[in-house]
């Protein structure tokens, strides 16, 4: 995907540069009322292209920053949930150990003779 993006950007920049080189007439730029500047149209086009590129780059940085912040938040939530799962797993193991001990305590001890007699019948 990167080579395709590079090719597309390169083609557009080349087309704008060639277009700018062909348009070298002087034109007037009004920055604010009363302030005028005369410059070749090529300079104006290239300058506006540069400003647009900088704005697009800043938007890309802002978007990446937002994604990183969202990723950090999700990553923190996942870590918290993993800790909770581990705590619950340990709690479950302790309950299972308690249950294994309890049946042995609750069952009355039956003499071996009675067990043998009931199995023969």
TrEMBL record:
It comes from Lusitaniella coriacea LEGE 07157. InterPro entries: LapA_dom. This is LapA family protein. Signal peptide: none annotated. Pfam families: LapA_dom (PF06305). Keywords: Cell membrane, Coiled coil, Membrane, Transmembrane, Transmembrane helix. Residues 23-85 form the Lipopolysaccharide assembly protein A domain. GO terms for cellular component: plasma membrane.
């Amino acid at each position: 995907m990167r080579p395709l993006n590079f090719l597309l950007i390169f083609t557009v920049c080349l087309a704008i540069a060639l277009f700018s080189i062909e348009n070298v007439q002087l034109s007037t730029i009004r920055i604010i009322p009363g302030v005028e500047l005369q410059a070749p149209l090529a300079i104006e086009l290239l300058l506006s292209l540069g400003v647009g590129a900088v704005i697009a780059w800043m938007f890309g940085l802002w978007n990446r920053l937002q994604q990183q912040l969202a990723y950090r938040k999700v990553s923190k939530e996942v870590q918290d949930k993993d800790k909770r799962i581990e705590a619950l797993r340990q709690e479950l193991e302790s309950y299972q150990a308690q249950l294994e001990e309890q049946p042995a305590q609750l069952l009355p001890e039956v003499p071996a003779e009675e067990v043998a007699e009931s199995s023969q019948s």
